């Protein structure tokens, strides 16, 4: 698609054999999906500039912060704060799904809200992967 649009715009394309594309295939289960997202997200966390320029990275940091705070409120038996944080996590997921799938049905948006939980979990893991490398 990218090349076709470039040709249509009369942009000269050059075949660069030094470029390598890695494709691990489409994930067939939840574990593979999380693993793929942890791989995709590594680049967002290699340096502060990448992180600050990526809405996904920033949303991932909010996702992590909400979870860490939620676990702290559970340990401290702060039920009201815990409920507020669960609602905050749901809101982050729902807004993410709504932004991407606004043209879809309400059921599709709710299903994708659930999928976004695993998406952000994979992206959270990518922070650890970026630090290790």
The dominant shape is: globular
What percent of the residues sit in helical stretches (DSSP H or I)?
Answer: over 70%
Query: Quick check: average pLDDT?
Result: 91
Q: How many strands, which pairing sense, and closed or not: the largest β-sheet?
A: none
Low-confidence stretches: none
> How are helices and strands ordered from N to C?
HHHHHH
| N→C terminal distance | 32 Å
The value of Rg in angstroms is: 18 Å
Task: Estimate what percentage of residues fall within beta strands.
Answer: under 5%
Give a quick rundown of the structure:
By secondary structure, the chain is mainly alpha-helical. It has helices at 2-8, 30-40, 48-52, 55-75, 79-101, 106-132. The protein contains 6 helices and no strands.
How do the helices and strands line up, and which of them pair or pack?
Layout: H1 2-8, H2 30-40, H3 48-52, H4 55-75, H5 79-101, H6 106-132
Helix pairs in contact: 2-6, 4-5, 4-6, 5-6
């Amino acid at each position: 698609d990218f090349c076709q649009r470039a040709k249509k715009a009369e942009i000269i394309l050059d075949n660069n054999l030094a470029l390598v594309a890695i494709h691990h295939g489409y994930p067939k289960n939840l574990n593979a999906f999380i693993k793929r997202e942890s791989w995709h997200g590594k680049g967002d966390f290699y340096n502060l500039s990448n992180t600050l320029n990526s809405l996904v990275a920033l949303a991932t940091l909010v996702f992590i912060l909400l979870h860490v705070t939620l676990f702290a409120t559970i340990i401290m038996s702060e039920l009201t704060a815990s409920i507020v944080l669960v609602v905050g996590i749901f809101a982050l997921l729902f807004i993410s799904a709504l932004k991407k799938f606004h043209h879809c049905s309400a059921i599709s948006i709710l299903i994708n809200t659930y999928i976004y939980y695993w998406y952000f979990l994979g992206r959270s893991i990518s922070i650890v992967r970026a630090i290790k490398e």
